[in-house]
Structures
1.
Amino acid sequence: MKHVLNRALPRCLLAIALAAPTLALAQATDAARALAQDAVIVDTHIDAPGILVDTWADLGVSAPDREFDYPRARAGGLDVAFMSIYTSAREDDAGSAWQSANAQIDAVEALVARHPDRFAIVTSPRDVDRLRQGGRVLLPLGMENGAPIGDDLAQVAFFHDRGVRYITLAHSANNRISDSSYTIEKKWDGLSPFGRDVVAEMNRLGMMVDVSHLSDAAVAQAVALSSVPVIASHSALRHFTPGFERNLSDELALAIAAKGGVVQIPFGIAFVTPKAAAKTQAYFRASDAFNRANAERVAAGQPPADRAAFEKDWEAANPPVEAPITDVLDQIDYAVKLLGVEHVGIGSDFDGVSGELPEGLRTVADYPNLIAGLQARGHSDDDIRAILGGNLLRAWALVEAGAASR
């Protein structure tokens, strides 16, 4: 939820970080570390590009202020790290989303050019085994928020040519393509007519349709319209967070699975931890009420209310939330039982949730802790391999094959 919190909104909710490392933690075992290095780990949501543009760091070497860098990626066994090309609702409103997306793609390309022995951009699952030889971490691109497309369908092909292989159709606000899960008032009752064209064009090109962040109606419509599997690149399950539309209902998750898709479980506590999710919902309700009241003030000729004061008061009234790694493990367990192991993966949201992560899953070095927890709960190594990356690679290949068969 970085995006909603530390970009689309000011500082509010950034305090939902872990206060004290006192919670029980799944410790990586030798067996977990070995599996992490041997399996193909695919994380479908890492928000390095936006931060890279805002505050540069060389991610090919140690970058202690980030959650993703090459040394820790290799320590954790990460092979395929989808770089999130994120643009905010504010950038959409300002008309700067296209520029922002291209600058982020340029930043990823520059990182690869600086360290061709450590990174490579990958645009097809067929190339993963070849390109990761020599210890490279592969960097496919996923676009979070379809705002850079604007209302020009040709931009889908433009960004496909730039290497983008999935598009999250909307983010924290309704856009030209789709309604958002976060908005109280929906614009399209799901997808817009243009959004339906976008789904068809993505199918034609072999781009994965990503339904994370979408309203329930938009998720259902995207799954129904797509001729190939769709993914949720970083969506937890609403079973643990009743009323939180950002997370998937059982019905929608089952629809994704029935189409051959994958639900990628995030690590951010605002998604996986019920208390933090309830706080997030409360924030959006309070923010909406503030905006409405403020609009009435301005319409009445009064000066606007102080947004910064609202944010400060919210932070003061809502202390940090702690979370154990078991919150993520519980999500994965439930998803496996509900959907079948072949429809579950991981989409951490590292560098995207302002440090709001469970103990034991704080950086890309920590995948062995997750593996140890899954092993301790009785998941077989073959099933864990599927969750770590095999399922996503299969779904991606099906999307690519669907385009090729047209």
2.
Amino acid sequence: MAAVDFYFSTLSPFTYLAGRRPWEIAARHRVTLNLKPLDIIALFPRTGGTPPAQRHPARQEYRLIEMQRQAAALGMPINLKPAHWPTNAAPSSYAIIAAQAAGGGDLAQLVTSILSACWAEEKDIADDAVIRGCLDGAGFDPALADSGLLAGAETYAQNLEDAVTAGVFGAPFWVTADGARFWGQDRLADLDAHLAGGQA
């Protein structure tokens, strides 16, 4: 089965706004999603970007406007300035990496619940109890939060390198097997159309 690399950050509001749609598109076209959580703050300077806090005030203001606009269009709740953001994205990313390797649960539920915890529920996704709750709710062993940390760290770092090599510069970002790239939750329709054309 063909795979689509799905690069994202568990701190990304626009990945949160993508919801379950990436998995629905993948299922419709019989492709798998290869989840590649990465350090978005480290990605920005590597690819000519700037972290949100360092952007011009006009860009920071428009980012919030766009987040609110997109959330309203999708009917999704969102806290524009979450209590626990930014936080350390590594623990939640390691848990996703471990869950993908272990299998047996609902990865879409895991990823969306972690993002919802940050952007809609005012929870700290670096907190072990929050991560364990998300794992358990998605049908995974909560102990995955504490296992495979070395492998998780190595994969997390490699995902960043893979992203730079693949031309990824933001999140969410999808790269198909034929090299087509799609940036942003508002480009999911384009990804869908690309896959519908028989190209993976």
3.
Amino acid sequence: MVELLPLSDIEPQAVEDLLDAAFGSDRFGRTAYRIRQGMDAVPALSFAAVEDGVLIGTIQCWPVAHHAADGTATPVVMVGPVAVRPDVQRGGHGRALMVRMLEAAETEADSALMMIGDPEYYGRFFGFTADATGKWNLPGPYEKHRLLARAVNGHGLPTDAGMIGPR
């Protein structure tokens, strides 16, 4: 049976090992890592999937911001990575982690959510779209159609031009 636990209950090295297995040890050069560099994950929105005492998946969320040209910084929570151990992928564990995070976000999120991900999947199952992100920029390469966002917990999304980066 799979348990969904707070990520803070999991040994940090186990999380790093899972992320290496899911994304490779070169993952730190990706744009998503640049955005959240030096930040700590949001404990109330970050979870682990554990089966028989073994970590099989994680979801992390990060406090970032949309920085407009006029200097206004609007808080946003960056979702991801959603990682599942390669040998148990396609078992619904990533989806379960997303559902748990979204349930928590409805009461715990201090801002809207954003992510870099597959628009068909995250739109269809979780309500993320690129509707508000067309004028947003990231500090590195990315595909515009994969920059997604979702309002949550009464927090709207900025739609003006701006750079996503640390809060």
